[in-house]
User: Fold these one by one.
Assistant:
Number 1:
Amino acid sequence: AQSVAQPEDQVNVAEGNPLTVKCTYSVSGNPYLFWYVQYPNRGLQFLLKYITGDNLVKGSYGFEAEFNKSQTSFHLKKPSALVSDSALYFCAVREGVSGNTPLVFGKGTRLSVIA
Amino acid sequence: EPEVTQTPSHQVTQMGQEVILRCVPISNHLYFYWYRQILGQKVEFLVSFYNNEISEKSEIFDDQFSVERPDGSNFTLKIRSTKLEDSAMYFCASGAESSYNEQFFGPGTRLTVL
């Protein structure tokens, strides 16, 4: 069965500093990996995805993520954090080529960027 | 930019009552999903729907739940007899043809069962 682990409930970072939100996954086949962000009282917004190819994936709002197959990780990064990046971040994985395959989410990491 | 919409934004109901949550997916998408998020917990898959039938469902999606695409645009989730533990944020999502594509989520309906 697929699973996603986000080991940190909360990440605090000062504005302007680099940020990392960690994610590891477990699948039996090829992973399709996603990051979503949730702002208060809002739905989930897609940030970026890894399907195949280059291990460094660039997404919305200056975020990027690095796929590491040997460590089964897909950490979310940003070189310089903004206060407006404060939100709840979810890593998700899906396995298989069918569009019916659901996303399996981690429990989320709350990012707090302090001015 | 096209987006998934959901109504109502907040639904309050009494235990044992039926509720219908409504979603309008992105128009050219073929896959439709419902997820839920109990307060403070992770987002959980309920059901996926394709070609007018359920494709996959989780253990949560028991006989109290049903989905329907009554016309060409709406996608609904019905809970037949609500329980207190059904209180959650319910998200509708839709996706294009390939599983390579991301799922687009609506803003959610907060269901409160009293």
Note: The longest strand of chain B covers residues 43-50.
Number 2:
Amino acid sequence: QAVVTQEPSLTVSPGGTVTLTCGSSTGAVTSGHSPYWFQQKPGQAPRTLIYGASNKHSWTPARFSGSLLGGKAALTLSGAQPEDEAEYYCLLSYSSGRRIFGGGTKLTVL
Amino acid sequence: EVQLVESGGGLVQPGGSLRLSCAASGFTLSDHYMDWVRQAPGKGLEWVGRSGNKANSYNTDYAASVEGRFTISRDDSKNSLYLQMNSLKTEDTAVYYCASLSGGKGWGQGTLVTVSS
């Protein structure tokens, strides 16, 4: 079974920019993996920020963007706000029909 | 208002069964692919399975950890999604969420399943 990897933790300054990445043990992440990005704050259900690598929902703040970068899926936060401090998860889809989450990145805004 | 509400969680002994429900309101569930996701206490998210929409004949896929034990089904008349969980193990203890990951209908609030003797 594939393993999906994320940075365990990252720190960004208020107003700064940070990129979270999502890799696959099977090789390069492509649009075929239909990458998702989710945000979860303590005590809350997750919410979907990005689907299909770069598509946003109506509630996704404009400062978040998704892309494919260097063989990985990437979530870039430009102009970090204190309320962006949260756990971020990516999800990849595989040809078997199965989907696998990454272990999550704890983002600190400090 | 678009809403997903899970129910049916509780305490069950190892080897037992439980059926979770996910009631949708504000939209037609049969039009949408739906996923079940779980989160063990203090741990990350784990994908459990997915049901395609009506046009896809509600095709299902499951994580290796639950295949053969869990079954996803729907009742269009009740606009609801279900997760039948059999042969439960202590490691199935988690909050279970239903979610419309790409359909823009969000996530439910989750229901806690505790498998313990």
Note: The two ends of chain B are 40 Å apart (CA to CA).
